[in-house]
Amino acid sequence: MNHRLDKIDLTILSILARNGRLSKTQVAARAGLGTTSCWERMQRLEEAGVITGYRAEFSLRALGPSVTVFVMVELSEHRVQNFDRFEREVARHDEITGCWALGGGFDYLMQVVTRDIDSYQRLMDTVLAEGADVARYFSYIVTKPVKYAPLPFEALFQR
User: Fold this and answer.
1) End-to-end CA distance of the chain
2) pTM summary value
3) Which CATH number fits domain 60-141: 3.30.499.10, 3.40.190.10, 3.30.70.920, 3.40.50.720?
4) Cα dihedral 12, 13, 19, 21 in deg (nearest 10)
5) Under 8 Å CB-to-CB from 144, ≥6 apart: which residues?
6) pLDDT tens digits for 76-118?
7) 22, 129, 147, 156: least CB-packed within 10 angstroms?
8) What percent of the chain has pLDDT over 90?
């Protein structure tokens, strides 16, 4: 961004993080702004890549059977081409809903959401078979969600 985020920008981001479905008029009212002023700020935040999209959250339980698995992954070698190959393989699978490169003991943390344990294992077998250079991985099955919250903008950007 060409400018620093100010208190009003952070307020808008906080409002949208909690309810991205609000109309621009509703966001403006909650932020204490005029509709045009709010809309211009939101556009600027989108153009700057701060706001990258709007999406809905769903209850997996209400949609039917599913399993969420967090997977710690260690690659067999630590060369750029190994990381690139693994990351390309991860990008191919929609069931891998999140993947983070880590510093420290393991190389990656993946979040996998799939129908059941069998489909999870088929996914991992595919990833392994496609030459993703995985030395080992550890699976942690989510037994219940405890907390999911929007980003804490106020705490992150206190001045």
Assistant:
1) 18
2) 0.80
3) 3.30.70.920
4) 70
5) none
6) 999 999 999 999 999 999 999 999 999 988 999 999 999 999 9
7) 147
8) 73
The enclosing H or E element of 124 equals helix 117-129
DSSP string, 67-108: EEEEEEEEES--SHHHHHHHHHHHHT-TTEEEEEE-SSS-SE
For residues 24 and 39, the answer to whether their CB atoms sit within 8 Å is yes
In the structure encoding, which two tokens stand for residue 52, read together?
């990258």
Domain boundaries, the chain: 7-56, 60-141
What pLDDT score does 3 carry?
A: 60
21: left (phi over 0), alpha (psi -120 to 50) or beta: alpha
